[in-house]
């Protein structure tokens, strides 16, 4: 874990709103009061259900659009109003780079170099993302994964202090994804601040110092991975030996606060207190000489926590169309 909380913020968003279309019922509030701080050198992941407002928020923070309300500061400046100053210090990897298909990979890099102050050599950026051997290939001939890597190379050209990655590994095979993770970790170790959106919870678990989960334009949970997972039940699974018969005839030990479900001899226990429940269960098994087949005990995964948080938020957060104008 990379504790950056003492450092000055690289990104600060307060009360951000983004509305598409007119005021009133005909418009749509995609971002509804986003507060976010990313410290310098931190890797922050923005997660959320489809349409939660991640891209809409990223575009405000990147200075590509003006917020309907609220403030954003990137490296202490307004990324929309002071765009020229901010753009020199940030790198943006959009969901769709949209580069002309007839240019080669190297030509695309050179075109962007001309627009980037203090750019690193194109070949260096291509090497970072493993595309050097594809430098003479036309963009339209690249695979989807290679295009994503070209998007990343372009974002890295200006040696950015803050790097914005919108779903950076979508469409990449597992090997290419692992390579991007290694690169992002290296960049972070060199001091780059990274704000990324992703649908891959494993990616957030692997990379993020802190994360926020968005639902319908708002942050509904946030913190370190451990903080977000905390409070979600751990799971113990095992199979009773045949001689025990069906679970309901056996009388498992009391497991306060736990939920027990049986599928024949296969038992699943969900518990908020993993250590205490497991200790009780193992003591009971030892006392009765019962072998717990395939015993597995694990804390909630980020995926389980995410699904529970999203389901909870869906029940408690009305759809934006029912809210009307959020301002
Ligand atoms: N230009 C637009 N006009 C109207 N509504 C829009 C526009 N762009 C996005 N939206 C809506 O705003 C909401 C948020 O979209 P956004 O793309 O920010 O979400 P997201 O969290 O990035 O989604 P995903 O995970 O599916 O990429 C969605 O309901 C989307 O349909």
Q: Structural class of the secondary structure composition? A: alpha/beta
Listing every helix as H and every strand as E from the N terminus to the C terminus, the arrangement reads: EEEHEHEHHHEHEHEEHEHEEHEHH
Q: Assign an overall shape.
A: globular
Helix percent reads: 25-40%
- Tell me the major beta sheet: 6 strands, mixed
Ions, cofactors and other bound molecules? adenosine-5'-triphosphate
Distance between the termini: 37 Å
How many β strands by DSSP? 13
Poorly predicted segments: 321-327
Which strands sit side by side, in order, in the main sheet?
5-6-7-3-8-9
Strand content: 25-35%
Q: Roughly what is the average pLDDT, rounded to an integer? A: 88
Tell me the number of helical segments per DSSP (H or I, 4 or more residues long). Answer: 12
The radius of gyration computed from the alpha-carbon positions, rounded to a whole number of angstroms, is 24 Å
Structure write-up:
This protein is α/β, with parallel strands linked by helices and 327 residues long. The protein contains twelve helices and 13 strands. The chain has helices at residues 54-62, 83-87, 105-113, 122-128, 144-156, 174-189, 201-207, 225-229, 247-250, 274-288, 302-316, 320-323, and strands at 9-20, 28-39, 43-48, 69-74, 90-93, 162-166, 193-197, 210-215, 218-223, 234-239, 259-263, 266-271, 293-298. The strands form three sheets. It has a six-stranded mixed beta sheet with strand order 5-6-7-3-8-9, with helices on both faces. Strand 8 and strand 9 form a beta hairpin. Helix 3 (105-113) packs across helix 4 (122-128) and helix 4 (122-128) crosses helix 5 (144-156). The longest helix has 16 residues, at 174-189. The protein starts with 8 loop residues before the first strand and ends with a helix. Mean pLDDT is 88; it is low at 321-327. The site of adenosine-5'-triphosphate (ATP) has 11 residues, from strand 2 and helix 1. Keywords: Antibiotic resistance, ATP-binding, Nucleotide-binding, Transport. GO terms for molecular function: ATP binding; ATP hydrolysis activity.
């Amino acid at each position: 874990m990379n504790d950056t909380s003492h450092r000055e913020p690289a990104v600060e968003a307060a009360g951000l709103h983004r509305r598409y279309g007119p005021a009133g019922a005909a418009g749509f509030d995609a971002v509804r009061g986003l507060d976010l701080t990313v410290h310098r050198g931190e890797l922050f992941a923005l997660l959320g259900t489809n349409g939660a407002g991640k891209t809409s928020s990223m575009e405000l923070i990147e200075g590509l659009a003006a917020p309907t309300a609220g403030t954003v500061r990137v490296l202490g400046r307004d990324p929309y109003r002071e765009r020229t100053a901010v753009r020199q210090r940030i790198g943006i990897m959009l969901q769709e780079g949209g580069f002309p298909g007839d240019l080669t990979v190297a030509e695309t890099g050179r075109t962007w170099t001309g627009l980037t102050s203090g750019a690193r050599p194109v070949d260096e950026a291509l090497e970072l993302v493993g595309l050097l051997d594809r430098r003479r290939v036309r963009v339209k001939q690249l695979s989807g994964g290679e295009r994503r890597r070209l998007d990343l190379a372009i974002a890295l050209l200006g040696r950015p202090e803050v790097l914005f990655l919108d779903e950076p590994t979508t469409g990449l095979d597992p090997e290419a994804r692992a390579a991007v993770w290694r690169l992002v970790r290296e960049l972070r170790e060199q001091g780059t601040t990274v704000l990324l959106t992703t649908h891959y919870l494993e990616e957030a678990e692997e990379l993020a110092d802190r994360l926020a989960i968005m639902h319908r334009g708002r942050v509904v949970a946030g913190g370190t991975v451990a903080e977000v997972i905390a409070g979600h039940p751990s799971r113990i699974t095992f199979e009773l030996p045949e001689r025990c018969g069906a679970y309901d005839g056996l009388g498992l030990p009391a497991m306060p606060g736990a939920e027990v479900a049986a599928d024949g001899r296969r038992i699943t226990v969900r518990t908020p207190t993993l250590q205490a429940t497991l200790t009780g269960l193992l003591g009971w098994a030892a006392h009765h000489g019962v072998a717990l087949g395939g015993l597995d005990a694990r804390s909630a995964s980020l995926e389980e926590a995410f699904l529970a948080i999203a389901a909870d938020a869906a029940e408690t957060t009305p759809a934006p169309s029912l809210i009307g104008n959020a301002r």
